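May I ask for a single protein's sequence together with how it folds?
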Amino acid sequence: MKIKCISCRFATIDESASDRDWKAYECSNPESEYHKSLINISENGDKHKRISWSGCDQGERKVKTDASETKNYL
């Protein structure tokens, strides 16, 4: 099942690629075809404020720490 990058726990901020007015997000999943790719940049190199990539089959959905399912699981 494909998980969109914006919902994936592996979408992390890349401080070295970010600048003062823009945060770069990269895929930190070594199993993904997008590993180490900046996922809020278009094919033309345009910077987007939001993650715009469609995702991959190796993605994992983010879990909110205050979610009741998480508390029950822990």
DSSP finds one helix and two strands in the chain.
